[in-house]
Structure formats: structure tokens, C-alpha cells
Amino acid sequence: MHITQAKETRHTLAVMVDNEPGILARIAGLFTARGYNIESLTVSDVTADKAVSRITIVTSASDATMEQILAQLDRLIPVHSVTDLTALGPHVERELALLKVSGVGDHRIEALRLADVYRARVVDATTTSFVFEVTGGREKIDTFVTLMREVGLCEVARTGIVAMARGAKAV
Amino acid sequence: MTELSGADILIEALCDLGVEVVFGYPGGAVLPIYDALFRSGRIKHILVRHEQAATHAAEGYARSTGKPGVVLVTSGPGATNAITGITDALMDSIPMVVITGQVPTALIGTDAFQEADTVGITRHCSKHNYLVKDPAKLGATIHEAFYIATSGRPGPVVIDIPKDVQVATARYAKPGPIRHKTYRPQVKADQPSIEAAMDMLAAAERPVLYTGGGIINAGPAASQLLCELARISGAPVTSTLMGLGAYPATGPQWLGMLGMHGTYEANMVMNKADLVVCLGARFDDRVTGRLDAFSPHSRKIHVDIDRSSINKNVRVDLPIVADVGHALEDMVRVFKARRHPKPDLRAWWTMIEEWRDKRSLAFTDLPSDIMPQRAIRALWEATHKRNPIITTEVGQHQMWAAQHFGFEAPNKWLTSGGLGTMGYGLPAAIGAQVGNPKALVIDIAGEASIQMNIQELGTASQYRLPVKIFILNNEYMGMVRQWQELTYSSRYSESYSDALPDFVKLGEAYGWKGIRIQTMGELDDGIAAMLDYDGPVIVDCRVAKLANCFPMIPSGAAHTEMLLQASEVSGEMDDEAKALV
User: Fold this and answer.
1) How many other CB atoms are found less than 10 A from the CB of residue A116?
2) Tell me, what's the pLDDT at A3?
């Protein structure tokens, strides 16, 4: 007997939740308990009174599972709203990454050139290292990270995706 | 306003919420609450013998009365022992509030004595949970917990209260009506959907009403409305295990239960229907059988208060998110207002009568051994006029009870459906008897399941609860054995109930009356003796050892592939079938 997998597509969700202890465990635990994927998850409070957090989740699922994910998230008591940004239409996705590159000589110059092309900023420098800050979509950062490997990349930190629908309407 | 201790706030809040009885077990981390309970004297406490039983007793109380069940247990093992019942209540949508003690806040996270991460452990087996660290928030939290447990799709809510929060003082005031900032279940259906549903029902040639536990949860009025909708539409009615009793078993349109051990007619109706109206059920795998063969010719309407139930297993054509009681009320009103004539379903009923003629629940009596189905029917004959409350354990006896004991009204049938928890029946019967002191409460049990919470014999003795246990004793974990016959060439791996106790003597040791029934000749008299005794009785009814439960849809099979009798049982199944639950 072999187990077959259903075809999955990638979705970016915006989940507004009460900013209370355990909320992240509720969301993350829901995904593990029901066998859903999480590719990326970011969270931060977004209102003036710090009472509401926005969680951005990138997940892959079949269409039927996606409908379940939205309904199951919506069912959690502290969840205010769930928006499937991918289904909603055009939206902006951004991620921030910090990359530490160490080396001397040509590698340093090449690293700076590449950083310039990718509009990465130098946020720390020593005679043997740089820390670059770069923002962009996932693909841009993936490519930048790959290129920097060849010029002495030794550490990467990425925030995960934050996303927002284009246009005047708020979620 | 004077300040109260957290423990006193809890008692005040419970009284304000109308709580009359709590099922629990004391321990170090709930001593302040037990002292407050003692001093107040306003809430009855039922001392169980194991915390799991407290949760099932609360479920039995809730299911039979419609009121939320309340559980009080200590930290650590008290809370972890309650997990099975909390999960059971989640699966079967039973309103329950579980109060757990916790180590003092300063000790949380230090691996203190009897510490467990109760909110972490119960996060995914409860509808919601709380760790209360501020006594000032305790009162409001308790009120909110009851609101969440009893509204929308009911379920268990856990409140974990550290011991220092029970002792510290704060002000308490009874809050007004709760309007939760995020949790607002949709109770009323949108009108166009109801109208569309009734137009579909009026136009259908082969409709069926497929009902579930949601109708029981919606209250007795929902069952009345279901009967009315059945009457005006003429549609046949079938039900899940959890929904038995919503439509009376003696009703003319009753098909019996559907699904894995459902009747031939119920499953054939589902298979051939052109319209399935699902009311408060959730297309569970025990009901659907093989999904790609489930009711292939029908359009489907699904009424459920939980949006996540819709399209979870089966795609439906018309989803209606609503409390099924409200939806039924609207449906009956709209059906009448639109002056739909009663549909002509004569051709459909002719087909149904042919399926009924299969008599799929028929069995052959043996000259000496008691067939388990016969025992259930004899029990029904002797008791149905008293409107008994029946609880069960899990296994063959449960399915035979569902098939052969006719339920005429809601809230009379208490069984562990979703989780399938052996050991549910006796504590559930205790809870039901506490909530219905005058009712006849019978736990139909198997000799294996009953041993999973057998210690609760003592609870019934202590509170003089006249519950009856009727054990169908075949010396096997019968359903396991049945599956082994079907799937594993009758290799009976660990399914024989060896070293059984003498249930009669065991009952007597706890102050119960014990009765043994061994032959057909003793059956009716034994049942009569059980009913005549004014106190708890345990009946050890020896039944045919190798009887199996039919009809049966094997795992992964379609509704049309029912096994109707033992001779159809084959020896071994392929890996795909073996991998299914």
C-alpha cells in the first residue's frame, strides 16, 4: 500500500487575534493537530492599545483543506477575523532578512556590489565582515541569500512573510 | 463591596449560573475550593472514585438534562485523568465546564508537586480554556466559560485556577448578559437559504432527513419541529448514533440508524436519495462509509452551527450555518407559508418498503443461549413504558442497543459516539440519575467496557443512586473480535476477556444487588427482578459468545456493500482496508 498526496497550492493568510497568552500556541497547535502545513508564521500586535495581534501565515493546502483551515481558524474563540489574501486578489508580501558575510579582499567588494544591486543596506561593518539588511518578496531574498553564499555568507536571519492586500480596503 | 477569596468567588459565580451539582474529586491544589464548597453548602457535590468518571458523569448529567455539567478536580493527575472525558465532550458537543486546581502561580513551570501544564494539555481537546492568574478576573472568566460551553456548538471549557488565586481576595459582581468581542455563533439562518432548502425539499422525489446530535443539543422543541417537518414533507428520517430519540422509533417515517451498523433501509435510502437534508450531523466516517460512493445521486443541504463542519468530509450544495432548532422552526414555517403541497413520495416509499422487507436487524434465537439482540429487546419490552434513560459503554453491546432499543424522545440516549470511550456508561448513568432522580437509568454494558470505570459502583452506593447495569457478557471484546474475524482470519489477538470477576459478588461487595441471567428462561424474570429492586443492580447477562453485530459496512466500503449476516464475513482484507479505522 502507498499513500498518495493531494495537490497543494500556497496561500497567505492574515489572522487578527486577541493579543493574549497562549494564542500563538493555539494557532500553531491547530495546524499540527489537524495536519496542516505552516511555511511561515509572523506575529505582532498592531493596534494602539496592543489588544489585537496580526498573524500572517503562509500555508500550502488543497482547495478543500484550505476551506477547512479558514473555518477551523475562525472557530477559535480569540480569533477576530481570518482573511485569505491569496484568494482575495493582488497583495503585497514582504520579508526582511539579515545576512552576515565574512571575508577579505575581492569577496568584500563583490558582496557590496551584490548588495547594491539588491538594495540591501549595510547595517554593521568590521574589517572582516558585513551585516546586510534586505527586504523584498520571498524569491528576491532567496536569490540574494544564494548569491551571498558564494562571497562568504556565514549567518542568515529572516522574519517570515508579512502581507497586505492592495487597494484602499482594510481587512 | 467586600472582597471574597477566589474560591468563594467561584462558588458565588456557580450559584449565580444556576449550578446545582458538581462532580469532582478533591486534592491539594483545590483544597481552598473544597473548603468554600463545604462552608457554602449551596452546591451538591458528587464524589467520584476517579476523575475520568467525574467528566463522564457530568456528560451524562448534561446530555440528560440539557444543563451544563460541571467538574472539579485537582492539579496534575486530577487534570490529566479528566482528559479523556474532556475530549469525549468535545467530540460529542456536550456542554461542560471543568475547573482544575493548579499549583500556585509562583511555582508554575518549576515542575512542582502535582504540576501539569493543564492549559497546554487541554488546548486542543477543549472548546476553550483559561489559566486565571488574577482573582479579580475569575468571576467574569467563569461566566464567560459557561457562555462558551453552552452556546454555539456546545463543548467543554477548562478553567485552571492556581491555588494562590483561590486564596487571594477580589471583588465579585454578577455580570450582565455576555456579549463576547470575538465569539458570536450564528444562531439564525439567512432566510433565502431556508427558502431555497424548502423549495428543494418540496421538489425532491427521493428526499431523506439525516439527523444528528445537534437536534438533541438544540433542545426538545427541535425534536418536535423535526417531527413536524417530517410530517409535512413526507420524507423518511434516519439518524446518527448521537441523534437517536429526536424522531421517535415508532414513528411511521423512521428508518433506523444509518452508517456502519445502520439498517439496510437507512443506508439504501442514503445511497439512492436525490436530496439529503442533513440536520445537526457532521458526515462522520462511521456514517458515510467510502466517501466517493456516499449518496452519489443526491443534492445535499447541511444545517450546522459549526461552519467548520460544512464541506469537511462531504461537499454540500446548500450549506446553512445556524442552530438547527432555529433552522427547523424557519423551515416548517417557510414550507407552510409557501403552500408547498405534501410531496407525492409514493414511488419512493414503495422502494423503501422493499428495503425494509429485508429485515436487516433480524436474528435467529437459539434454544438455550441468549442472543444479545434478544436481551436488548427484552429489556426494551420490560422498560419502555417507563421512558428509561439508557447509557452504554462502547462496542457490540452499544450498537445492539442503538439498533434494538427504540428511543421515543430526546435526552434518553447517552453514549460516547465520536471518541468511542469504553468506561463511559456507568459514570454517565450516575450523572443522569443525579440529574433525573425519579428516572429509570440503565447502563447497557459489555463485560470488558464495564471494567474500565467499575470503581464507580462505590459512587452510586454512596449517593443511593438506583442505577442499573445490564452487562451483555460474551467474554470477548466483541467488536475487536468481530473485526479480527472480518479482517485477520479470526486471529483473536488479545480480544478474549480472561480472568473476569464474578460481577454478582463484585456488585454485592459494593452494596449493590447482583443478578445473573444465563438462559432464555431466566431472561424476563431476571429483568423483572432488576426493575423491582429499589436500589442499584448489576445484571450479568450471559449471552451467545460469538454473536456479531449486523448489518455492517466494512471500512472503506460503500453503503450498498453492507454485510447482512455472519455468513458473508470473509477471512482477510487487503492493506488498504486494514489501514482504515
Assistant:
1) 11
2) 79
